[in-house]
Amino acid sequence: MSPDKPISPVVLCGGSGTRLWPLSRKAWPKQFVPLIGGKSLLELTLERLRHLNTEVTCVASDEHRFFVQEAGAKAGVTGKQLLEPVGRNTAAAMACAALTADPEALLLFAPSDHHVPDAKLFAETVRKGMPAALAGYIVTFGVVPTFPSTAYGYIQPGPALPDDQGRQVARFIEKPPADVAQQLLLEGGHLWNAGIFLVQAKTLLEALRKYAPDILEACERAASDSQCDGSFQRLDRSAFEQCRSESIDYAVLEKHDRVAVIPFAGTWSDVGSWNAVAGLHEADADGNRVSGKGFAAQATNTFIHGQTRPVVALGTSDLVIVDTQDALLVASANCVESVKDVVARLTQEGFTEATEHRRVARPWGAYDSVDSGGRFQVKHLTVKPGAKLSLQMHHHRAEHWVVVSGTARVTRGEDILMVHENESVYIPMGTTHRLENPGKIMLEVIEVQSGSYLGEDDIVRFEDTYGRLPAAEQKKG
């Protein structure tokens, strides 16, 4: 088989990103949040994979499908989305991707939330793994370590493969304690496990059938009974829910005898903690790093992420400060790995801020819940050029829309109205309505809701551009 065979990238878009709370939350995980230069990690990943192929398959949850679709459009790639009804870890996600691909396809599995600045070097390194993958190996890529990390797993390379095709993997090492990590670095030769794999679809399926037949069988049923909706392919819920949750490392790689590793010498980060995010920003003379509206005065080794308002760190040392519209994190730099534990506690105690943002993304744009009271709620809507909300009706609330930027086309009952900046329109309770942006700039609207019940489930959809069924997603717009 020719080494010129095209590589088919598959991006694994799962993960809740709780270690980067409060910026990343279950409803809007870190891979979708603009984090580096105004771009999300997923968008940067897709841009990087574009050097290998402009057609990319993404495996994502149904809840996040429009985030993935938008990132793909921004990155200039096309391809299908394989939608998981529930999360079942990487073994199931990779199995379903392989089952829905050509058996001879050379699949590159890549996480959506890693940062690799040198896209050209990344593509060159991946291509080095092609001969081994075409020879029946599962090829993984190990990052040359730069410090004794306790947050990453390690790979110990074994004997060299023929014709400079990489090395066999001798063993995988779990995330080690500090003293073991230091020893691995001193010994040399060990690599960080980046969780990136190059393998033919048939090779992966054969390995799964040998080491995890129950996972493969459940995924076969989920894939065979899947339903296609445009670029979306929805796996069967009942079959997929029966699949056990396990990583590909545990399910296959640690048992398989044909795993190869190729070293990657470039910069890499899984952006797995606030310290990792801080490391993406340049430090001043005192070791302070700032993102957004942060100011460090008489401070040392302090990271500030300020989204909307000035955040001042005065006389601080070794702190991480992350400010969002509805939650604030102040943590010792030595404790950031415990953020996920705090999020679990907040969730248990019923704080919606643990999992949901005040700003909620939608396929047509977003809304920000500005204020609310017993019988009113105020939202700031932003509608993309050419986008429109569903044709809908509310039983228990009326709405008043004020256009602050752009021009809105409003359907109200039988009427079609053009509403310009500094103009408003009233939508009575029980009236069919729709908001559209016919212009070429972002439409911004202040929405004031009033009524006896303002819950997001008070909506009846009659028509929707984005294929959302009324019973499947009872959300605004």
Automatic annotation (TrEMBL):
<dbReference type="Pfam" id="PF00483">
    <property type="entry name" value="NTP_transferase"/>
</dbReference>
<dbReference type="InterPro" id="IPR005835">
    <property type="entry name" value="NTP_transferase_dom"/>
</dbReference>
<feature type="domain" description="MannoseP isomerase/GMP-like beta-helix">
    <location>
        <begin position="299"/>
        <end position="346"/>
    </location>
</feature>
<dbReference type="Pfam" id="PF22640">
    <property type="entry name" value="ManC_GMP_beta-helix"/>
</dbReference>
<dbReference type="InterPro" id="IPR049577">
    <property type="entry name" value="GMPP_N"/>
</dbReference>
<dbReference type="InterPro" id="IPR006375">
    <property type="entry name" value="Man1P_GuaTrfase/Man6P_Isoase"/>
</dbReference>
<keyword id="KW-0547">Nucleotide-binding</keyword>
<dbReference type="Pfam" id="PF01050">
    <property type="entry name" value="MannoseP_isomer"/>
</dbReference>
<keyword id="KW-0808">Transferase</keyword>
<dbReference type="InterPro" id="IPR051161">
    <property type="entry name" value="Mannose-6P_isomerase_type2"/>
</dbReference>
<keyword id="KW-0548">Nucleotidyltransferase</keyword>
<dbReference type="InterPro" id="IPR029044">
    <property type="entry name" value="Nucleotide-diphossugar_trans"/>
</dbReference>
<feature type="domain" description="Nucleotidyl transferase">
    <location>
        <begin position="9"/>
        <end position="284"/>
    </location>
</feature>
<dbReference type="InterPro" id="IPR054566">
    <property type="entry name" value="ManC/GMP-like_b-helix"/>
</dbReference>
<dbReference type="GO" id="GO:0004475">
    <property type="term" value="F:mannose-1-phosphate guanylyltransferase (GTP) activity"/>
</dbReference>
<dbReference type="InterPro" id="IPR001538">
    <property type="entry name" value="Man6P_isomerase-2_C"/>
</dbReference>
<comment type="similarity">
    <text>Belongs to the mannose-6-phosphate isomerase type 2 family.</text>
</comment>
<dbReference type="GO" id="GO:0004476">
    <property type="term" value="F:mannose-6-phosphate isomerase activity"/>
</dbReference>
<dbReference type="InterPro" id="IPR014710">
    <property type="entry name" value="RmlC-like_jellyroll"/>
</dbReference>
<feature type="domain" description="Mannose-6-phosphate isomerase type II C-terminal">
    <location>
        <begin position="352"/>
        <end position="464"/>
    </location>
</feature>
<keyword id="KW-0413">Isomerase</keyword>
<keyword id="KW-0342">GTP-binding</keyword>
<dbReference type="InterPro" id="IPR011051">
    <property type="entry name" value="RmlC_Cupin_sf"/>
</dbReference>
<protein>
    <recommendedName>
        <fullName>mannose-1-phosphate guanylyltransferase</fullName>
        <ecNumber>2.7.7.13</ecNumber>
    </recommendedName>
</protein>
